[in-house]
Design brief:
Length: 448
């Protein structure tokens, strides 16, 4: 049996391997074909002389080219790319100023508190254009924009279908998993540290997608986060018009967003737990997911209608936005773990004012929780002395109403009015806390 290595250009993921392998195995005489997109080659085993012309035709019919791939630069030399990026940056700045002045950046859940279906939908609508947009929307935008950029020949409907199936999978999973929460309680609630690591992993994916969309770093196009070939086959990724898409994979991605740490989502998960049953818990979570759909469909759907020069600028703008979302979520995820931020590693700095008082051998610390975070959010306490942390929650329907305190494995949802958290610091240093998304941080500095 003869072994032949064929160089192939333009491969960029596992599904490319599957498509080319399938095309090659249709050629008489070829017994096996092992395609590797990392090495840009196909290793073919055949009986007798291999028909190279048939191989070339099969590869081209699959949408690729036979030949050595050009070496990609780390930084592009095309000045036009930097011009388009500058335009995208100005557009993004204008959108930020508009959103800030319109109040979209200060949205909270206070205007839609409650656990009935209508309230759950209203909370979802708010989440879909605020915090969920930063995490879930950032992921959707990165994936969908990259997909549309790679497949400009697809029709508007073909580009938009992934977003429909993503939201269908999201709504269905939220109903089922919300029902399980209602039936079995909080067994699906991972620790703050695990959620922080998950957030950082998602942010890392977004960062790669965003940098690829800017097209300023050509070499990054060689790096793909893809499924193993066996799992890709099981999901049917190679069975559809676009080379990186299947309905089932889009629905799976939507379903997995149930586990992403969005403050709005966690509020509704707590309501599902409190519902006490499968059906009410499922309905609450499904209604919330339905509410988020317009915002998520909107940001993803934009990628299906742009073309030409407008598409070039749009993808640059989208890339910058996804990078911004990624940095935002990387920072938040890092805070959620309770680790000391590397940008603050200058020793244990003591705040200028001590906000704790001692009453009957207990350190009393008072903090105000609002829609914008915690006031104050830095305290000094003494080692070995019990602390009574009194938190006055004035906006229990915002992300800040859920406090994570990793040092004591504590996660608490604040009720309106005064909430008391007690702990005893046993070591000097800095103990960090934050809201459930890591957006609003705080700390206790423990001294002797």
């Amino acid at each position: 049996m003869d072994r032949t290595i064929i160089p192939i250009r333009n491969m960029h993921c596992k599904s490319c391997e599957l498509l080319i392998e399938r095309a090659l195995l249709r050629i008489p005489g070829i017994k096996s074909a092992n395609v590797n997109f990392h090495r840009s080659e196909a290793v073919i085993h055949s009986h007798g002389t291999l028909d190279l012309e048939r191989v070339r035709q099969a590869v081209e019919e699959a949408g690729y080219e036979v030949g050595e791939s050009e070496k990609r630069l780390w930084l592009t030399r095309d000045s036009n790319e930097y011009g388009y990026l500058a335009i995208g940056g100005l557009l993004l700045l204008a959108l930020y100023i508009l959103a800030s002045r319109s109040g979209l950046l200060q949205l909270s859940m206070a205007s839609a508190a409650g656990t009935d279906i209508v309230s759950a939908i209203l909370i979802g609508l708010t989440a879909g254009i605020s915090t969920c947009m930063a995490l879930v929307g950032g992921l959707v935008l990165g994936v969908s924009a990259r997909h549309a950029e790679k497949h400009p020949e697809a029709s508007v409907l073909q580009k938009f279908r992934p977003h429909i199936f993503f939201n269908v999978g999201r709504i269905g999973a939220f109903f089922i998993l919300g029902g399980l929460l209602g039936t079995l309680g909080g067994f699906l609630s991972p620790s703050a540290g695990v959620l922080g690591i998950l957030t950082m992993l998602v942010a890392a994916v977004m960062l790669l997608l965003g940098m690829q969309l800017t097209e300023i770093f050509p070499r990054l196009n060689s790096y793909k986060l893809t499924l193993p070939s066996a799992l890709s086959r099981a999901l049917g990724i190679s069975q559809h018009h676009t080379k990186e898409y299947s309905h089932r994979s889009a629905m799976t991605l939507g379903a997995l967003t149930f586990f992403l740490p969005c403050g709005f989502t966690q509020l509704m998960q707590m309501n599902a737990i409190a519902s006490g049953g499968f059906l009410p818990g499922g309905i609450i979570m499904a209604a919330f997911a339905i509410g988020t759909a317009p915002g998520l469909l909107g940001i993803g759907g934009l990628t299906s209608i742009v073309h030409g020069l407008g598409a070039k600028i749009f993808f640059k703008t989208a890339g910058l936005l996804v990078v911004a979302f990624a940095i935002f979520n990387l920072t938040n995820g890092y805070r959620m773990t309770g680790w000391e931020p590397f940008w603050e590693m200058q020793g244990n700095r003591v705040p200028t004012q001590t906000t704790s008082t001692v009453e009957e051998g207990v350190q009393i610390v008072r903090m105000l929780q609002t829609a914008r975070g915690y006031e104050p959010n830095a305290f000094v306490v003494k080692r070995g002395v019990p602390v009574r942390w009194i938190v006055n929650a004035t906006d229990p329907n915002s992300c800040a109403a859920s406090i994570n305190f990793p040092a004591f494995s504590l996660s608490k949802y604040l009720s309106p009015g005064e909430n008391i958290i007690e702990f005893t610091p046993l070591q000097t240093g800095t103990l960090r806390f934050s809201c459930s998304m890591g957006m609003y941080p705080g700390s206790f500095t423990v001294i002797d």
